[in-house]
Amino acid sequence: MKLGLGLPTSGVGTSVAAIAEAAEEAERIGLDSIWTFERLLSPVDGAIGIGGTEPTPLPESYRSVYDPLETLAYVAARTSTIALGTSVLDVLLHSPIVLGRRLATLDQLCGGRLLAGLGVGWMVAEFDAAGVPTERRGARLEEHITAMRAVWGPDPVAHDGAFYTIAPSYAGPKPVAPGGVAVLAGAMAPAAVERAGRLGLGLNPIMMTWEMFEGSVAAFRDAAAKAGHDAASLPVVVRVNGEVTASPVDDRQPLTGSVEQVVEDLARVARSGVDHVLWGPGDDVDQQLELMAELRRSI
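RESULT FIELD:
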């Protein structure tokens, strides 16, 4: 089982030193991956979701969030073996040629260790700030990934679609692997899970309930197989919005609680054919690293 941990990239209390120390310690204790996420801004009056939700206050830590790709480029130079992931980039806030080249550059800098978790985004204010319409997000995402894959392929590259155009051009560097950067879809909705499988992407679902998780994995693999992909070879990395704790927890979400409780849950994850789980850094990243080290020894 592969274990991953989010880096402490948000909040005014974090620092470059804290990020570097967490990355180096994660590699030292034998974790398999470290992760960043993207938050473009935190509206003063609260965030409105696409579809017209009431304004929702965001965590105070979202007022300062280090850019995910620059952060991973920095820790790439401080580590040598651990995988570097995003969970997730809000892909539609970027153009495919710009994001494709940034991801390819980062993949070269880290020696092919990159796992690019991509999502559509959900906050109206971020779409407005980026000058991107919120309509037809699924179609835009699908074409965006197609365009990036073209950028990662042999030169000259080109794309002519409904949303994006890339004139026949030379566009390097290319990712380390011939097939391009490993892409994971941050997907929860059934249509998004189906799209990920159909496109032959990996999957980066959030663990909510066992029923949702197992149903999503099954639907993802079914869609992949129907599209002619080798479903078993497509990566699934489960994201846990919770912590490993020092003591047992009675009322808990799956994959949270004490090391012993999480070990039991990981056995159920493995029975679904999934072998990679990541947790956030928690309120105390040093304590979380200690508990992750114990978890690593226990499985």
